[in-house]
Amino acid sequence: MSLSRVASSHPISNLPASSAPAAASADEIRLRDALKHCPPAVHEAVRRFRLDPRPELLSLILSHLIERYVAPDLRVRLQGPSDDLLLLEHLGLDSLSLMEIMIRLEDVFPITIRDDELRQVRTLGDIRQLIQRHMAGMDAAESF
């Protein structure tokens, strides 16, 4: 069967344009891509965290975002993450992985991480504090 025949026989392609689902916003697309390897519970945690930035939600989100960059035998260390868990020494992350994690964090949270802030990140607690500082700064800026 030709590709055009398959496409024209697909139920969504036969819907009028007004019936097709609305296009996702750029933020939703970026968020979906950043969380594509995370379970649905993490997607929900991010949605809730954006509304109410509670620390327990942040722990869940960070563990899952960082997990894919950590060797399988070291992932157990993320199950009970401690603020003093060293990203390089305890989790085996290299500078490229850390940069990719920061990019994902910027996609998940409405923050921008500066290079000088990135150079200061050494532990899981540093990442947590960085996000909390940015989120608190946004709240303060929104109150004006």
Describe this structure in words.
- This protein is mostly helical and 144 residues long.
- The protein has seven helices and no strands.
- It has helices spanning 3-9, 26-34, 40-51, 55-67, 95-108, 115-120, 124-142.
- The relative contact order is 0.10.
Give a short summary of the structure.
The chain is built from seven helices and no strands. The protein has helices spanning 3-9, 26-34, 40-51, 55-67, 95-108, 115-120, 124-142.
Keywords:
single chain
Give the topology, please:
Blueprint: H1 3-9, H2 26-34, H3 40-51, H4 55-67, H5 95-108, H6 115-120, H7 124-142
Helix pairs in contact: 2-5, 3-4, 4-7
Structural class by SSE content: mainly alpha
Say what the CATH topology is: Non-ribosomal Peptide Synthetase Peptidyl Carrier Protein, Chain A
Task: Please identify the top-level CATH class.
Answer: Mainly Alpha
Q: Give the % helix.
A: 55-70%
Portion in strands: under 5%
